Amino acid sequence: MKSIRPCLAALLALAFLVNLAGCTPKPVIPLSVFAAGSLIQPFNELEKAFETRYPYIDVLPEYHGSIQVMRHATDLHEKIDVIATADELLIPMLMYGTVDPETGSPYANWHLRFASNRMTIAYTPQSRYADEINADHWAEILLRPDVKVGLSDPRFDAAGYRMLMIFQLAETQLDKPALFEDMFNGQFRFGIKTEAGESGVTVIHVPEVLETKPGSHILMRGGSIALLALLESGDIDYAFEYESVARQHNLQMVALPDSLNLGSPDVDYSSVMVKLDFQRFASVKPEFGGGRIGYGITIPTNAPHPREAQLFLEFLLGEEGRALMDAMYHPLYDPVLAVGYENLPPGLQKLVEPAP
Questions:
Q1: Is residue 300 classed exposed, middle or buried when 0-12, 13-18 and 19+ CB atoms within 10 A define those classes?
Q2: Which H helix or E strand runs over 339?
Q3: Residues facing residue 241 across a β-bridge
Q4: Phi (first) and psi of residue 207, to 5 degrees
Q5: SS3 for 344?
Q6: Beta-sheet pairing, 82-85 with 252-255
Q7: Are 200 and 178 in contact (CB under 8 A)?
Q8: What's the alpha-carbon Rg for the chain, to the nearest Å?
Q9: What is this structure's pTM?
Q10: Phi then psi dihedrals of residue 52, to 5 deg
Q11: Going by C-beta distance under 8 Å and a sequence separation of 6 or more, which residues neighbour residue 30?
Q12: Is 147 helix (H, G, I), strand (E, B) or coil?
């Protein structure tokens, strides 16, 4: 058997020459990305392509409901490089409005409004009454006592409070004045209440303790993505999901009209509001007004790797990132709009336009 020592000697000599030439590999930089669960599939594709272009950056994604994403930054004070949420208004509400105790500065002072979506009712061929449900009488199907409906927790997830909004809006759209009460009354230990607010706005109050009663026809989970497994197993029959997610998972859908899907730029959804009736956040009480779905993304002011975070956003907004998002049924705005445009890094300013 031939000796391997000459081979080892050659490899050591080559490594010595590489170091002399200044070609030492860059240390791997961990890039923490916290994002809404509805971005899992597109951001997974984005991660692979981004790391191919920048092999010295290791993207470390973590996915939660949108409000929970905010809490990791503003309440738990975790150092995060990129934050992306399914409700862009959470960023100014909770990051502009909360000061980092270490720096004395707000957690963010700009964000990008980079995409929208539509809410849809997702189901499978095995769902009860799958052969009957359609856009005209979905409400009657979901109210049937033997039908199980998934709800993502509105205290943590934007899809959850958007589902509540849709049922309230549908009372007028479908001429069913008791629809919200019929769907949710008696399903929780402490009920979700509605009241008439100012200027004709209906306010939905979500209590601090939100637990379903035994035998409820509603099954609740922390985020809308967690409902997908319940759909596949048959534990629930229907779930309100983002259209992009339903398409990514090849689910059947009831396409809601623009007046209800929260995705149209031409519809005024402001006749409804959701309030969380507890102080989960240190200094801000979240109130969510009805409006078109808008995804937001930012680099926190205390991000440990702001330059690499900027590269991630530039990649997302570039040609390859746009193509990946398109392939995942979640196209970006063209143009992407920036709130706080003057505070953006110059490299990002050239890729977006100021929000009106």
A1: buried
A2: strand 332-339
A3: 120
A4: -75, 165
A5: coil
A6: unpaired
A7: no
A8: 23
A9: 0.90
A10: -65, -40
A11: 58, 60, 305
A12: coil
The sign of the CA dihedral 143, 146, 152, 155 is positive
Are the beta carbons of 147 and 176 closer than 8 angstroms?
A: no
CA atoms within 13 A on the CB side of 77: 8
Rounded to whole angstroms, the Cα distance separating 158 from 156 reads 7
Cite the DSSP H helix spans in 134-203: 138-143, 158-173, 179-184
Which residue is it, tokens 């973590």? 62
* Mode of pairing for the β-strands spanning 149-152 and 218-221: parallel
Name residues whose C-beta falls within 8 Å of residue 52's C-beta, 6 or more positions apart in sequence: none
Q: What is the pLDDT along the chain (356 residues), one digit of tens a residue?
A: 444 444 444 444 444 444 544 555 679 999 999 999 999 999 999 999 999 999 999 999 999 999 999 999 998 899 999 999 999 999 999 999 889 999 999 999 999 999 999 999 999 999 999 999 999 999 999 999 999 999 999 999 999 999 999 999 999 999 999 999 999 999 999 999 999 988 899 999 999 899 999 999 999 999 999 999 999 999 999 999 999 999 999 999 999 999 999 999 999 999 999 998 866 555 557 889 999 999 999 999 999 999 999 999 999 999 999 999 999 999 999 999 999 999 999 999 999 999 99
- Residue entry with tokens 């607010």: 197
Here the tokens at position 113 are: 């409004």
| Residue 269: both structure tokens together | 């959804």
Which domains, from first to last, does the chain contain? 23-116+294-354 (3.40.190.10), 119-276 (3.40.190.10)
